[in-house]
Amino acid sequence: MNRSKPEITKRQKQLLDELNKCADELSGQELYRSLHLSEFSMGLATVYRNLQVLVKQGLLRSRHLPTGEVLYAPVARDIHHLTCVSCGETTRLEGCPVKTTNTPKKISKKFELLFHTLEYFGLCQDCLQSMDA
C-alpha cells in the first residue's frame, strides 16, 4: 500500500511545529497553553480534534498515562518509557527494542503500520521503598 502524503491544515501544521520545537512530549493542554500565548491561538477542542486527526494520519504518536492524560510527539521521535503506576513518574528508555522486531509478511500486506508504542508499567524505586517502610 502506497499512501500519498496526507494534506494538513494550517492549524495542524501549527500543532506539528509546536511539537517539533519541544524535545519532549506535550499534552493537549500544554499545546493549548503554548499556542494561546502566541499568534496561533486556537480553542482547546480544536487542539484535541486536530491532534486526533494527526494521529490518524500517522504524523503524531500518542501515549496514554495511567492518569488518563495523553501525551503527543512527532512520529519521527521513537521514544519509549517506563512509567510508575503509583506516582506517575516516567523514565525515558534509550533506543527502541521494537525496531528489531519484524511484522509478519502476511499481516503487513493487509495493514499499513503508522507508528508503534512500547510502554512498561511498574513501580519506581521511591514508591517501592515507601511500600516497604
Give the count of structural domains: 1
- In CATH, the homologous superfamily goes by the name Winged helix-like DNA-binding domain superfamily/Winged helix DNA-binding domain
| Unreliable parts | none
The assigned structural class equals alpha+beta
Descriptive notes:
The chain has 133 residues and is an alpha+beta fold. The chain has one domain: Winged helix-like DNA-binding domain superfamily/Winged helix DNA-binding domain (Arc Repressor Mutant, subunit A). It contains 5 helices and 6 strands, in the order αβααββββαβα. The strands form 2 sheets. Strands 1-3-2 form a 3-stranded antiparallel sheet. A 3-stranded mixed sheet has the order 5-4-6, with no helix packed on it. A hairpin with a 5-residue loop joins strand 2 and strand 3. Helix 1 packs across helix 3. The longest helix is centred in the middle third of the chain and has 13 residues. The chain starts with 9 loop residues before the first helix and ends with a helix. The relative contact order is 0.14. The mean pLDDT is 83.
